[in-house]
Amino acid sequence: MDKNFKVGILDYAIYTPEEMITAEELSKLVNIRPEVLRDKMGINKKFVGGPEDHSGMMATKASKAVLEKTGIDPKSIDMILYAGETYAEYICWTVGIKIQNEIGADNAYAWDLSFRCAGTPLAMKVAKDMMYADENLKTVLVAGGNTNSYLVDYQDPMQSFMFDMCPGGFAMILKRDYDVNEILGSGIITDHVFSDDVIGKFGGTLHPITGEIAEDPEQFRRAKLLNLSDPEGMKKRLAERSLPGFTGAVRKALKASGLQESDIDFIGITHINPKAHYAIMAELGISEEKTFYLSDFGHCGHADQLIALREGLRVGKIKEGSVVALVGAGTGYAFTCSLVKWGK
Q1: Tens of pLDDT, residues 175-197
Q2: CB of 335 closer than 8 Å to CB of 329
Q3: Which residue from 3, 24, 175, 250 has the least number of CB within 10 angstroms?
Q4: Contact at 8 Å (CB) between 159 and 226?
Q5: What pLDDT shows up at residue 2?
Q6: Other C-beta atoms within 10 Å of 182: how many?
């Protein structure tokens, strides 16, 4: 890629629901002590979705917000990349086209990218690469929403690693030849040994929800939620492979950017437990103050990196020229990182 080619983030917006649930309130639903939720799982509180908090709707709300912030004419948008969850309002549905319709981006084309909670850093890379390949792409809207928290079974203790999940949406405007908030290199890793570990087993073509399942209340409840195929095996494999996945994605992004680990000024990591969060930083040699841990937000999926970015800016940890690492991870498993040079 031509070193003179630049894509920058004009601005971004985040949507989160109004209601929140505290560790004390969540404790009653999941039968885990509040202090364990707070200290070991990193959940002080998290968002709770309302009747209009669905993946497409939240991405649309964030998209409208970023258009209002920037004053961008929707008709000037060349492409809309929906990088949120496929678990959305409908099945067999392209969310990006719905966003296009809702904001009136008549001259754009829209499509969806599915990569679970690793999607946002990947979408930044894909959008930049497409803008490099196609000079007609000058203004791109990247948006996403996540409602996978609605699929988590609070009655299954093996799913406790997902009890932090909550709804959220985001949107960002990317501009060609814009040297502010420049997107640098990215690193993407997929670890296929986890490919079938976390699935919505029922409702697809292989395992449809039959009349027999629908007639049994407990079977029907569980069929509508996520299923862990091998929870003990997955836990063991994650203990061995997740840290190299996270750090490997960051190091790939650094290599693509011509930077070193010591160049990172701030790292925004998808919400995981605090022990794992700070282990990633330690492995990379990043001091613990160069982050913002999302204990008061929960795991909003695709919005996590931008929430960390916003909070890092708010508390003054990100300054003009800071190199920011935005890090995601999603079941499957995928690990992603995109670097941004914030400001000029």
Answers
A1: 999 999 999 999 999 999 999 99
A2: yes
A3: 3
A4: yes
A5: 83
A6: 18
Is residue 215 one of the residues assigned to a domain? Answer: no
Q: What is the CATH number of the domain that holds 262?
A: 3.40.47.10
- Boundaries of domain holding 253: 184-199+225-342
CA of 79: how far to CAs of 107, 127, 306, in Å?
Answer: 8, 9, 20
Residue 246 and residue 189 in contact, taking contact as beta carbons nearer than 8 Å: no
Q: What's the distance, CA 240 to chain centroid?
A: 23
Contacts of 116 (CB under 8 A, 6+ apart): 85, 148, 330, 331, 332, 334
All residues at 6 or more sequence positions from 118 whose CB lies less than 8 Å from its CB, including other chains: 188, 270, 328, 329, 330, 332, 334, 335, 336
Q: Which residues contact 195 (CB under 8 A, 6 or more apart)?
A: 332
CA–CA separation, 344 and 39 (whole Å): 38
> How far is CA 66 from each of CA 42, 169, 299, 325, rounded to the nearest angstrom?
29, 12, 22, 22
- Quick one: 249 and 334 in the same domain? yes
Strand ranges in 155-252 using DSSP code E only, listed in sequence order: 168-176, 182-190, 198-199, 227-228
Q: How far is it, in rounded angstroms, from Cα 110 to Cα 130?
A: 13
Going by pLDDT thresholds of 50, 70 and 90, the confidence category of residue 52 is very high
Residues 122 and 27 reside in one and the same domain:
yes
Of the candidates 323, 9, 318, the one whose C-alpha atom is nearest the C-alpha of residue 180 is: 9
The label of the residue with tokens 């029922």 reads 202
First to last CA, the chain: 20
Residue the block writes with tokens 């190299």: 244
Domain contains 296: yes
Structure tokens at 205: 């073509």
Q: Locate tokens 């049994």: which residue?
A: 216
Alpha-carbon torsion (195, 201, 203, 204), positive or negative:
positive
